[in-house]
Amino acid sequence: PDRSGDSDLKTYSDNYCKSECFIINRLDRPVGGIVLFAKNKTTAADLTNLLTNGKIEKYYIAVVCGSIQQNGIFEDYIVKNSITNRAVISSQKNNRAKKAMLEFEKLSEITDSEYGTLSIVKIHLLTGRHHQIRVQFSHRDFPIWGDTKYNRFFINKKGYFNIALWSYCIKFKYKSKYYEIKLKPEGSVFDKF
């Protein structure tokens, strides 16, 4: 729960399970998709350790503005500004900068009468930095559709937009069992593809 008073996943999960649940990963507020919870502290500690050590693979689907190349890797250094709740690409020499890496693959492209060319991409997040996907794509002039923080077209646009960024798959091995959790993107501009 936060100052907004909006419903939150932690409270919902605790009520649903009728006991305390523990959050393993998080998503930015406007992002949809998979959030992993554990039902007990031991499992939570184990899964958090897997996440911290890069043993939980995270995949996203995003719609970006523009015609992006077929696939690639973004490697940058990101600095978070806690006052503005934004992040920026920085130099490796900045002692506050953290390395950010992701791989992406273009799945398809459409031309929209209002927004121009839109590309849908699959993203394998290799690190987990503040607003990483949003910042890295925006920095290369392929901002996420509907992003009112990093897409200059949407910053002053009136109305509410669901950002076209979705956590659609998480993969990990835990206690000799392999897990692959998937959730298809829904709503927003995803319906155009």
Can you characterise this structure?
26% of the residues are buried. The radius of gyration is 17 Å and the shape is globular. Strands 2, 4, 5, 6, 7, 8, 9 and 10 form an 8-stranded mixed beta sheet that branches. The chain has helices spanning 9-17, 41-52, 132-139, 152-155; strands at residues 22-23, 32-33, 37-38, 57-65, 71-81, 86-90, 98-112, 116-125, 165-174, 177-182. β5 (71-81) and β6 form a beta hairpin. With 193 residues, it is of the alpha+beta class. It contains 4 helices and 10 strands.
Mean of residue pLDDT? 92
Quantity of strands, as a count: 10
Structural class: alpha+beta
- The number of helical elements comes to 4
Instruction: Report the order of strands and helices.
Output: HEEEHEEEEEHHEE
Q: Report the uncertain regions.
A: none
How many strands, what sense, and barrel or not for the largest sheet?
A: 8 strands, mixed
The residue fraction in helices comes out at 10-25%
Cα separation of the termini: 34 Å
Based on CA atoms alone, the radius of gyration comes out at 17 Å
